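Fill in residues.
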């Protein structure tokens, strides 16, 4: 058969289909395409907390966590995690301490949250809601 990009036509690669957005997909369905579609449908497009809050919560739960692991848990790049940590250190919410070849992090839980809506509450209240107060 000759390749054809018309919707619904069979080609050498498989069946072309049109997505709801109108773009074309080609090829036969794979074994994991159903799982991937359900995962994409389940992944939220927004969350209630910022990535800064996610990083803070991760470090509160495990102060010795590597940035690579924080990035994996939050779902962002390691570089984005480094930028967020830099922001948190500069603003006084996190202290970084060298422990051998690794870093350990200490949170300043008494500091107020930054937005005027929640500025009367300490950042520790947010952390406590998810992981409790660290010792």
């Amino acid at each position: 058969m000759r390749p054809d990009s018309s919707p619904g036509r069979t080609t050498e690669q498989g069946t072309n289909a049109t997505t709801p957005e109108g773009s074309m997909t080609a090829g036969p369905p794979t074994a994991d395409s159903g799982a991937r579609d359900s995962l994409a449908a389940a992944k939220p497009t927004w969350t209630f907390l910022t990535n800064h809050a996610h990083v803070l919560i991760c470090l509160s739960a495990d102060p010795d966590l590597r940035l690579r692991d924080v990035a994996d848990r939050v779902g962002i790049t390691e570089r984005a995690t480094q930028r967020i940590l830099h922001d948190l250190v500069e603003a006084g919410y996190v202290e970084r301490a060298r422990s051998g070849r690794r870093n350990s992090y200490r949170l300043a839980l008494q500091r107020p949250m930054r937005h005027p809506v929640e500025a009367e509450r300490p950042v520790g209240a947010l952390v406590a809601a998810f992981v409790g107060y660290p010792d």
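Residues 8-18 have pLDDT under 50 and may be disordered.
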